[in-house]
Amino acid sequence: MTEPNSLLTETIFTESIFLIPEKTVIILDTEWAHLPKEETTLLAKILKAIGITIDAVTIYYQQPINLAALPIKPSPCLYFGQPVSGITTYEVLEINGTKLVASDQLTSLLADDELKKKLWQALKKLFSS
Fold it and tell me: How far apart are the first and last CA of the chain?
């Protein structure tokens, strides 16, 4: 006789299981609760431009950035914060299997259209690969 659980599995779950991609990770060097409204709005606009909502990302606070300290191995990952030695800004980097784009702080992006353009170019590369 077939066990009830296997019968259920055979009749209901007939499709293959697919790997669900991890959420995009955002790392900020300022705590979310301390970000001004203009910066959270800018982040939402940046994410919308790449087809992601603020609800579809995981946000971490780190100062300084340390990918090894995260509870998951994120990919892709966006960093908004002070420049970090050894991490080039506005380029797609691969660090221990994590694709990362590092940017200046959101407050800097608010005031500088050239930085926004650099970020946009890097994001297009990160999310097209």
Answer: 50
